[in-house]
Structures are given as structure tokens and as C-alpha cells.
Amino acid sequence: MINLAEKDIRHTFGKFIVTAMGVGMLLGIVLIMIGVYRGMIVDAKVLLDDLNVDLWVVQEDTLGPFAEASRIHEDLKDSVYVIDGVEKSTGITFQNLQLPTSKKPVRVVAVGFDPFDTVDPINPNRLVEGRGLRRDHYEIVVSDNIGFKMAEEISIGRNTYKVVGITHGTVSSGGDPLVYISLKDAQELQFSYSNNRIRSDRARGIGDSTINMPMVNAVVATVRPGYSIDEVAEGIRNGLHKSVYTREGQKDILTKNLIERASKQIGLFTAILVVVSTIIIALIIYTMTLEKMKEISIMKLIGIPNSMIMKMIVQETLLLGFLAFIFGNVFSHLIYSKFPKRVVLEIPDAWMLFVVIMIASILASLIGIKKVINADPAAAIGG
To answer: Domain check: are 85 and 168 in the same one?
Structure first.
């Protein structure tokens, strides 16, 4: 049996392929949008997974340092440590910094921790060069995408820090690169006032504005084997009157509270792009059908049934959607690494898009089918 779709596509092969490539670029952007969302989820969990702690103790009635301001005394780690079931605990800080580079300042998140304590947020598997922190002052470990090299010196605040290690894939929940400094340096940067502020306070009759009690943004802790994490967390809440979140609770805050609005926006853009792709496919099929209306009228005049002509339209539409999906996958894999933030392309997302596009193609073919049904065989005679 003659395949009408094959004959028609061969006749306009170049135009058909270029059209599929154009629609494919749209579908590639859809995959990129989904990949951006997946990347946000991965980024949100990087620091949590590297720390690998069970509990986050933060300022009461707050969601913790990733969602809102949290300040607690550093010595709270000792109070947490003596809670029954706690294996180890330490204070940690987080702050946004602008690091000066040769091109332009780069926004980073600085993680401050005690290099001599039992909890180290630097994952050794992510270290690609150098080492972790070994001193209380003036050492820094940076992410490789910032552009600093080993032994390079960076001026931050009043001090100069030497790069002693470089990591790969370390980002904050917002996708900004992470840098690691000692807790004492971080406290000086975050909680100490500038010299001008100190002089101004003294002139106002205010006492010394430097830190008397060292502060941190959170105290993190691990639970001993055999103890219930939830029960230990409840004991800290009742005994120390602080907000306490488990690892899963902190992940929920990051993925739901912080990423929820962005995910809705990305989802809306994705839906719009899919609808636009469907409309474009429908318009293309409608235009292709209009271009061959005389031929369709002749086919109907010589007795070719509507079902065969309709089959041709559906086959062309499905093939157009399939080729667009292929080109879209190729396009997305060629450009995803160029984006400044992490883009994660997953196979299930691609299959989901394939199903959506096939359904959209079938719906789009209905416009061409309607035109075929209404075609008048007499038009073939009229010229």
C-alpha cells in the first residue's frame, strides 16, 4: 500500500526537517527549564549532604540560616553536646560575600567552621586540589568556578586570606559558589563592627562594640547510634528553648519554602512553552494541508477514502513531533553546560515530555483533518 505521508515528506523534505529543528529548539528550552528546577533541588542539598549531620539547632521561632536570620551563642554547642543522645556538636556560620576577582566581584556564600572540631563541612571527595583548613586564621578553601588558583591571596574585610584548597561542585542552596573559612575569621567578618562604627559608638558614649560573646548562625549535631533523632531533637527544644530541625526537616525548608515559588514560575513557563509548541505544530500542519488542498481534492475525486488522507495528516504530525523531540534533546544537551547555574537533565523528564508532545501532535493534527474532511472534490476540476 502506498504511504501518502512518506511521499509527501519526500517532496518537501528540506522544509520538513528545518521546521522540526525549529520546534525542537523550543522543546530543548522546555527540557532546560525542567533541568534548571532539578539543578535547584540538587544545589539545595549539596551543603546538607556534605555536612552530614542529624540536627540543626537555630534561633528560636526561626526556620534557620538558609531561610531567615538566625543568631545564637557559640557556647550553645556545649549545652547541646551534653544532651543525652548527642554524639558531637559544633557551631557554624553562613554569610554572603562579594569576592574581588580580576574581572568583577563574585557573589559567594562563606561557610565558617572550627577546623579543629569534629564536624568538617568540606567533603574530601570534592577537593580537587590542595587541602582543607588547618589554621584558625587567614586560610580559605574556594570553589573552582570562582577562578582563584592555589596559594593566591584574597583580601576580605580587614584581612588577607590564602587559598589552600579548591573544591568542585560546592554551591549554596541558591546556586552561589561556596568558600570555607575558619569560624573565628567568619565571626570577625559577620559579627564584628568596622573601625568607623566602633569610633562612632565610642563618640556616642556606647561601650566597646566588638563581640563579647562569640555568635554563630546554627549549631549542628549528630546523634549516637541507637537513639531516636526526633526524641533527641525534642529534648533540645524543651531543654534549651531553641528551634531544632532534623536533616529531613532542613531539606524540606530548602526544597519547599525556598524553591517552591521558583518551581511554580518554572512550571508556568514550561507549560506555556509546551502550549506554544503545540500551536506551532498545529499551524505548520494546517499550512502544509492548505498547500496541498488541490492534490487532496484530486485524491478524493479519484476515490481515495478520507481515512487514508487523514492517516497521512496524523502520520506527518506525529513524525514532526518525534523529530522535534529528537532535535530538542540534542539541542538541550549541547547548551546546558553553558548556563551559570546547575542544569540537571534526567531521562524520566525527557520521556514525560515525549508523551506530552505525542499527545499534543495528535491534537494538532485535528486542524488538518478538519480541513481534509471539508475539502471539496470539485475544487480539483475548478483549477
So the answer is: yes
